[in-house]
Amino acid sequence: MKTSAVFSAALSLVALVSPSAAKSTTALLTPPQVFKNTNLVHVISVEKNYVKENVNVLIENISKEPQDEYYLPFTADQVSRLGGVEVKDRKDASAGPFSTQTVELDPESDTLYLRIQLPTPLKAGVQQTLGITYYFLDAYKPLPASIKQDDIQFLAYSFSAYLPSAYATLKQKTEVKFPSSTIPDYTRLPGSGDVKEFPQKQGSKLTYGPFTEQPAGAVEPVQVRFEFNKPVTHISELQRDIEVSHWGGNVAFEERYTLYHHGANLSSLFNRVKWTQANYYNPTTHALKELKFPLRIGSADPYYTDVIGNVSTSRFRSNKREALLEIKPRYPIFGGWKYPFTIGWNSDAKNFVRATASGGYVLNVPFLEGPKQVEGVEYENVRVRVVLPEGAENVKYHTTIPEISITDASVVIHQTFLDTIGRTALIIKARNLVDDFRERELVVSYDLPLAARLRKPLVVFGSALVVFVSTWVLGSLDFSFSSKRK
């Protein structure tokens, strides 16, 4: 089957799922029609292996009462892959981010809503410009689904030329940004005014619109297919441990990854000889062959292991300007392949921990670090565990990760070597993050009483004393046998 035929078949499938004939849908229960979108610009970026969408919309309160809840519809499938939602006032950067939450208004409908809480109710007839940013993970389909080892990879993405909205939109347009100008297939729509056909292509960008007034719920399914000859790196699970030691003056980091390549599968068996030959002229490939981890300056003692053991194909550069860990997997990772591995390193505690005037402590670390790749990295599930010194109490945290991405947070007791009551550990779970959130802060405050600080050295001293005394007592005993004289 030719590529264009495959694209047409896939587009027909999209049309079956979201028929363009029914350009407006009405759920049994919908948000009240208290707003209208006066002007809307929808920017979709498929430049990385996840989708980033920016919606800049000028909303107007058309009701007679002040309103403070704005709704944005998504399908249930989209919500399961939605992450990193942030909403701000475009004209007032200090007023945000706004509180967001996904809600279900109709249990029998596939439509869920992102409820945006405006910090100040919008009065009747007043307008406000919202800047809404969110990400979709696992958003692409390789097309074709299987290719040869040295073939170029193409991805397809489906969306609506009209931004699905709970409110009527007077004017809108959708811009799509690509990693290159190679866009062999895309849906064409009838134009308006002087433009005969949408989209308009300008280099690596397609523009659908501007469109005239559309009712609430209007959709226009389209699909684009573009060249993406890079790895589609998907981290299904990241377990990040941060262990703080006051007596050792050290913060230890360990990260355990379960990595998948969500690109096109190989249509034939992997050829090691062909791969080795190709490395001499280093062509662009969709296989993942290297990961780069920028660490904080001063990081030391890095290690890199996988399920087999230590992996020697790594390089660590550390100086006054940078600390960079470069790792190469044991084998190149192609579409559909999996690679679990672990990295770790140490850093001076003074780079992350400071004492407060009240006698407590504050730990400031990145919530997410991970590899920094040109093609981007997406994270489905992230678990961050901060292990504090034994006896730490009154633990509180703050993070600049979007609140909608945090799914759970708890404080537990973690048992390790030479502990008596166990160490206090803060566990935070997040979902659907991307490497755009690298270096977002995680600030943990805690108290450490004097008794808790002295517990470990006293335990070590006491244990050593017990061993010494026991050895001395046992050494002074006479276990020899004596013969009895008659």
Task: Explain this structure.
This protein is mostly beta strands. The chain has 2 domains: about 220 residues, tricorn interacting facor f3 domain (Immunoglobulin-like, Sandwich); about 220 residues, Immunoglobulin-like (Sandwich). It is about 10% helix and about 45% strand. The longest helix is centred in the C-terminal third of the chain and has 27 residues. It comes from Lasiosphaeris hirsuta. This is Dolichyl-diphosphooligosaccharide--protein glycosyltransferase subunit 1. InterPro entries: Ribophorin_I. Keywords: Endoplasmic reticulum, Membrane, Signal, Transmembrane, Transmembrane helix. Component of the oligosaccharyltransferase (OST) complex.
What keyword list fits this structure?
single chain; 486 residues; mainly beta; Immunoglobulin-like; 2 domains; seven-stranded mixed sheet; 4 helices; 11% helix
Per the principal axes of the C-alpha atoms, what is the gross shape?
globular
Number of helices: 4
Largest sheet: 7 strands, mixed
Q: Could you give the order of strands across the largest sheet?
A: 4-7-2-1-11-16-15
What's the total number of strands?
32
CATH architecture tag of the largest domain = Sandwich
**Low-confidence stretches at least 5 residues in length (pLDDT < 50)?**
1-28
Could you tell me the strand content as a percent range?
over 45%
Span of the ends, CA to CA: 108 Å
* CATH class value of the largest domain: Mainly Beta
Report helical residue fraction.
Answer: 10-25%
Q: What's the number of domains?
A: 2
Going by helix content, strand content and strand pairing, the class is mainly beta
Oligomer: single chain
Provide mean pLDDT, rounded. 88
CATH topology of the largest domain: Immunoglobulin-like
- Whole-angstrom Rg: 29 Å
CATH homologous superfamily identity of the largest domain = tricorn interacting facor f3 domain
Membrane topology: Single-pass type I membrane protein
Subunit structure: Component of the oligosaccharyltransferase (OST) complex.
Keywords: Endoplasmic reticulum, Membrane, Signal, Transmembrane, Transmembrane helix
Family: Belongs to the OST1 family.
